[in-house]
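Fill in residues.
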C-alpha cells in the first residue's frame, strides 16, 4: 500500500519516462560537425594580424625593460657624482677583505674580494672603510691584530686583480 502512495504522489511510471525523454536532447554525430564562416584566406589574414600584434607587444615590452635598465644605470652614474672635482676623480680600488667576507655591495653594485675596480674617490674611500671594518671584525673574533702580510685565500697582485 505504501508503494501505491509513492507512485501516485510522483505520477505514474510512464509519466516519468515521458518526462525523461523530453528533457534529454538526442545528439547524433552529424550535430557535432563544426560550422565555420571563415574562409582559408580570411584565416591566414587573421593569423598574420595575430602574429603582428604579438610581435608589437613583445617589442614594446622589450623596449620598456631596456629603457628602465638604462634609467637605473644613468641614475647610478649621477648618484656617484658629488660636483667636487677632487672627489669625482676616478681611482683604482683593490678589494682586500677578511676571510669571512666574499664581497661588498654598495648601491646595488657588488665588489668582490681580490679584484680591482675603477671608482670615484669618494666611493673608494667608503669601500676602503668597509674593508677595514671587515678586518677589525675578524681581529675581534680571532683576537689578532690586522696583518697586511697575512696569507690570503686569494693572492692580490696586478695579474689577478684585473
Amino acid at each position: 500500500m505504501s508503494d501505491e502512495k509513492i507512485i501516485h504522489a510522483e505520477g505514474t511510471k510512464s509519466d516519468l519516462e515521458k518526462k525523461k525523454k523530453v528533457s534529454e536532447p538526442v545528439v547524433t554525430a552529424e550535430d557535432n560537425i563544426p560550422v565555420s564562416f571563415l574562409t582559408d584566406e580570411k584565416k591566414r589574414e587573421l593569423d598574420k594580424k595575430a602574429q603582428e600584434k604579438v610581435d608589437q607587444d613583445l617589442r614594446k615590452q622589450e623596449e620598456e625593460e631596456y629603457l628602465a635598465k638604462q634609467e637605473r644605470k644613468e641614475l647610478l652614474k649621477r648618484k656617484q657624482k658629488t660636483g667636487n672635482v677632487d672627489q669625482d676623480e676616478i681611482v683604482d680600488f683593490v678589494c682586500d677583505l677578511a676571510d669571512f667576507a666574499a664581497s661588498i655591495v654598495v648601491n646595488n653594485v657588488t665588489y668582490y674580494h681580490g679584484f680591482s675596480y675603477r671608482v670615484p674617490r669618494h666611493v673608494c674611500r667608503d669601500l676602503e672603510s668597509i674593508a677595514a671594518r671587515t678586518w677589525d671584525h675578524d681581529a675581534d673574533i680571532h683576537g689578532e691584530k690586522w696583518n697586511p702580510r697575512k696569507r690570503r685565500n686569494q693572492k692580490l697582485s696586478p695579474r689577478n686583480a684585473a
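Residues 85-162 form one domain.
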